[in-house]
């Protein structure tokens, strides 16, 4: 699971959970998969992303030196930051770990890179 | 659009995961036919629900690599794994998530949604015996039945999607939905109009025993026009 995907996941489907976002991420095993840097793509995707969860991912991946806590303005003109975002969001692949609902503590395991977000019938 | 390699998938996989067939290829052909529209739309987030072997979302991820994030969901863990392997085999960038429909996704985030639902008309009993939970290892046979058994009118799962569609699609989002004549596509089009969506029969194909349709669905308020 890439950290860009992490930015879209929520536990909102659990009964009684209001926001369920951002999930608390734990990384046990990760891989770094190099991919082609396309600054335009990173810039275009940013409005879709929640910066709190981008920064949260950076904290877990220990990349807070690269990523500021508050989203700076005019990122498009900052190619160095775009490159660092590219690395954080598209090159780090979480193979083993877990996601935790911020409201209920329900844990969703990540196994072989696949988060298991499926809920049981009595949870929805 | 190139048809992805599937030579890594074995007969053993196809005992538990839907094998790409005419319906899958019609959905691929529809995307191919609408490529100019899609390239203009530049969908930031593409998602296929019930991705099965993963051939459709993999083909799309290859084609839209420069402008899109691609995700695939399935309730069947074997399908999630097959999708992940198909993406890897073809060098496509996409992530596989195990969940029901798009339950785990933030609201109104999907710009391009694909769904080849379990559309075969069956008794509801047949469908109700198919219950998944996240812990148990589901049996081989059940995994596969769930990929095609659609309950009454073959619409049980599709109707749930229609109810949730406003919560799933982004303001400029588009859905390509595969249907069978027995699913009553005209009914669905009318129903969607009531929900402020615009739906058109984008493609259709007769194959022995089945008449398949691709419905293209956009928000009726959406500024991007449907061809």
UniProtKB/TrEMBL annotation, chain A:
Superkingdom per UniProt: Eukaryota
GO molecular function, one term: protein heterodimerization activity
Protein family (similarity comment): Belongs to the TRM112 family.
InterPro entries (UniProt xref): Trm112, Trm112-like
Subcellular location: Cytoplasm, Perinuclear region; Nucleus, Nucleoplasm
Keywords, comma-separated and alphabetical: Cytoplasm, Nucleus
Any Pfam family the entry gives: Trm112p
Protein's recorded name: Multifunctional methyltransferase subunit TRM112-like protein
UniProtKB/TrEMBL annotation, chain B:
UniProt-annotated location(s): Nucleus
Molecular function (Gene Ontology), one example: nucleic acid binding
PROSITE patterns in the record: N6_MTASE (PS00092)
One Pfam family, short name: MTS
Record domain Methyltransferase small: where: 34-126
GO CC annotations, alphabetized: eRF1 methyltransferase complex; nucleus
InterPro entries documented for this protein: DNA_methylase_N6_adenine_CS, Euk-Arch_PrmC-MTase, PrmC-related, SAM-dependent_MTases_sf, Small_mtfrase_dom
Single GO biological process annotation from the record: methylation
Primary location class: nucleus
Catalysed reactions, semicolon-separated: methylarsonous acid + S-adenosyl-L-methionine = dimethylarsinate + S-adenosyl-L-homocysteine + 2 H(+); L-lysyl-[histone] + S-adenosyl-L-methionine = N(6)-methyl-L-lysyl-[histone] + S-adenosyl-L-homocysteine + H(+)
The organism's place on the tree of life at top rank: Eukaryota
Key words, A-Z: Methyltransferase, Nucleus, S-adenosyl-L-methionine, Transferase
Subunit structure: Heterodimer; heterodimerization with TRMT112 is required for S-adenosyl-L-methionine-binding.
Function (record text): Methyltransferase that can methylate proteins and, to a lower extent, arsenic. Catalytic subunit of a heterodimer with TRMT112, which monomethylates 'Lys-12' of histone H4 (H4K12me1), a modification present at the promoters of numerous genes encoding cell cycle regulators. Catalytic subunit of a heterodimer with TRMT112, which catalyzes N5-methylation of Glu residue of proteins with a Gly-Gln-Xaa-Xaa-Xaa-Arg motif. Methylates ETF1 on 'Gln-185'; ETF1 needs to be complexed to ERF3 in its GTP-bound form to be efficiently methylated.
Family label: Belongs to the eukaryotic/archaeal PrmC-related family.
Name of the protein this chain belongs to: Methyltransferase HEMK2
Organism: Drosophila gunungcola (fruit fly)
């Amino acid at each position: 699971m890439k950290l860009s995907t992490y930015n879209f996941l929520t536990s909102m489907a659990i009964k009684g959970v209001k926001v369920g976002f951002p999930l608390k991420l734990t990384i046990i095993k990760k891989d770094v998969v190099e991919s082609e840097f396309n600054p335009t793509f990173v810039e275009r995707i940013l409005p879709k992303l929640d910066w709190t969860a981008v920064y949260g991912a950076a904290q877990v991946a220990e990349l807070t030196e690269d990523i500021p806590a508050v989203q700076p303005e005019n990122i498009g003109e900052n190619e160095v930051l775009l490159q660092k975002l590219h690395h954080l969001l598209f090159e780090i692949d979480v193979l083993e770990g877990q996601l935790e609902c911020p409201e209920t503590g329900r844990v969703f395991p990540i196994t072989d890179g696949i988060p298991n977000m499926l809920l049981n019938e009595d949870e929805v | 659009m190139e048809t992805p390699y599937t030579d890594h998938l074995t007969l053993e996989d196809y005992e538990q995961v839907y094998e790409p067939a005419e319906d899958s290829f019609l959905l691929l052909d529809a995307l191919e036919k609408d490529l100019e529209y899609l390239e203009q739309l530049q969908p930031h987030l593409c998602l296929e629900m019930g991705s099965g072997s993963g051939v459709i979302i993999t083909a799309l991820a290859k084609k839209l690599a420069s402008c899109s994030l691609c995700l695939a969901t399935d309730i069947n863990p074997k399908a999630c794994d097959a999708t992940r392997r198909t993406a890897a085999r073809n060098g496509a960038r996409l992530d596989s998530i195990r969940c029901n429909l798009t339950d785990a996704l933030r609201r109104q985030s999907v710009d391009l949604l694909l769904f080849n639902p379990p559309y075969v008309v069956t008794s509801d009993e047949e469908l109700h015996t198919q219950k998944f939970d996240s812990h148990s290892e589901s049996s081989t046979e059940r995994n596969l039945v769930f990929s095609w058994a659609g309950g009454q009118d073959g619409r049980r799962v599709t109707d749930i999607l229609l109810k949730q569609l406003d919560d799933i699609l982004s303001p400029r989002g588009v859905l390509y939905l595969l249907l069978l004549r027995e699913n009553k596509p005209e009914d669905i089009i009318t129903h969607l109009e009531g929900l402020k969506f615009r739906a058109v029969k984008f493609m259709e194909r007769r194959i022995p025993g089945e008449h398949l349709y691709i419905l293209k669905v956009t928000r009726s308020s959406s500024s991007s026009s449907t061809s």
